[in-house]
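task queued by scheduler; priority normal; single chain, no ligands, no partner chains; default sampling; output format set to structure tokens
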Amino acid sequence: MSLSKAAAATRTAATRTAASPAVRGPRRSVLFFLFFAFAFAVIADPVSSVAYAIEAALRALHGDLALLLPTMSLVIGLVVIVTANYWQLVRRFPKGGGAAAAAGRAYGARWTFLPIGALVVDFVLTIGISIAAATSAVIALVPGLAPVRIPLALLLLLVVAGLTWFGHGGRLLFAVMTVAFVIISVGVLVLGFTSPHATGHAAATADPGHSAILAMVLAFPVAMALATGVEAPSTAIAQLGQLDDTHRRRFGRGTLALLLVIVGGLTLALTGLAVRLRIGIPGTDSTQIADIAHAAAGPGWLYDAFQLTSSLLLLAAASSSFQAGPGLLKALAGTAARPGVLPPVLGRANRHHTPYWSVVVYLAAAALIIVAAAGQEQELVLFYAVAVFVSFLVGLVAMARFARREQKTGLAWLNGLAAAAVAFTLAVNLLRGWPMLSLAATALIAAGLYTRWTRAGHPAGVEDVEARAEAE
């Protein structure tokens, strides 16, 4: 992601602030505004995942509400583990780079392409699932649009892709959308817990005789879509070229902490409300989160605002990947002065610095998966928490190696256990069969990039491609 124009306008003042050992008066306000624009724009993706992750878990539990809260608690626990790893990555790589930089520094440049391939697939899936979920939110608000679900999804996809043409100027708007969704959600939660409009009729448990632990173990990996976007702060800090390393670390870690509080808090609160109001698997033309809001607030402005802000937040998440994904391809593309991994055409940009051919690539790929999934985000969730978990796993293993090299035994064990948990989650998702397609796509893209890198004569700097993509 890139800083908004409004945030970018503060760069000169922020640079003076960062260079000062003690920040006082209006300079603190400059840093606060910059952090607001940065953090809330970066976390739009993981916050938007709340719209479909809880429902995904409930479907995997076959509607068993009694196990929903423990399952989502397990999900949040793993998100905490993954976030702890990126907390370390931010400290080690304050100029950005994420798992790709860690893999390259720990095991050599050739291993950089595995997390890069995973991110390419993740960006496509983020666009597809966010557009599909936004479409579902609109249909839940206006059920008459249900027959045109796929055309509506493709129209929203084209609109978001078209707005990408104008560059990164809308980032502050993404931050505002995130805040608006959080505020409206809090209103729905307060009303739902104190004076709900209605309650649902879902049974407390779908199968009292089954193994609760086994059901949870098989269900929670599906809801790990909630963890997508956790890596964003570790790469997005490369945008903060006006700040020194110390302030970049603070911004990165502050964003990770904010992400954990907001995503974890909203997820557990909405899950608890779903259980309390007995909101089960939704009908064809609704979503669970829409049913929760309707039961809590009833028809009226609060429900309408909830649906509107959730759909806009999902579109913002799609837009962020529409900029980060093509930006990554642009950084991999060659130029006349510098040989690259991908053809130079993918790096061609307009006056707003948008690599338009790379945008077309992501547009076509996202349109394909939206049509294949019939515009249903729950069909895509099964594929979602695969590619990005490959990136998580590579980053954790790399950080464990760094810890061993530096003889930090405790940290090495922590990273190793976290890597085992992530590997287990990945394996359970792959056992479902179809998610193997995500892994296959990741492996093919990584192998293709490695092959082109070898043929290009191993151009230097590939470990820093994520940081370069964000900085550009």
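post-processing summary
- Confidence is low (pLDDT under 50) at residues 1-26.
- Residues 254 and 404 are 27 Å apart (CA to CA).
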